[in-house]
Amino acid sequence: MLYRIQTFYLFLSILISSISLYLYVYYQQKEIKNSFFIDKIFLIFLIITFILSIISLLFFKKKEIQIFCNCLNILINSATLIYIIFFSYYYKYFLIKKNIIILILSTILFLYLSNKKIKKDIELIRSMNRIR
């Protein structure tokens, strides 16, 4: 399980998701805003992406489910990114969210690389089955 490069990429995405979740909670404690509902939706997005990354790591033997979880996670991370950019300009606290935006972009990158390596692994297994 831990000797594959896609597992390493998934582990990095979990680590970055947890850091972004921690930074978001840290920023929330430092400042008081009027956008309670928007902040809670963003927190829910971050928690969902963190849980999906963990689920994807745990399904290391079921590669199709892992690819599905990664694609769903990339989609939710992209929606979170659009959500942050739109509402941070609207509520004018973009500078605080800049670090979280960079972390979300790196999470998307690692999830994409993980999907690429998983698909390559699936193709290798299929070619070995054809040789038999």
From TrEMBL:
Record bears the keyword Transmembrane: yes
Membrane-spanning parts: 7-25, 37-60, 67-90, 96-113
Highest taxon of the lineage: Bacteria
Protein keywords: Membrane, Transmembrane, Transmembrane helix
Descriptive protein name: DUF4293 domain-containing protein
Species the sequence originates in: Blattabacterium punctulatus
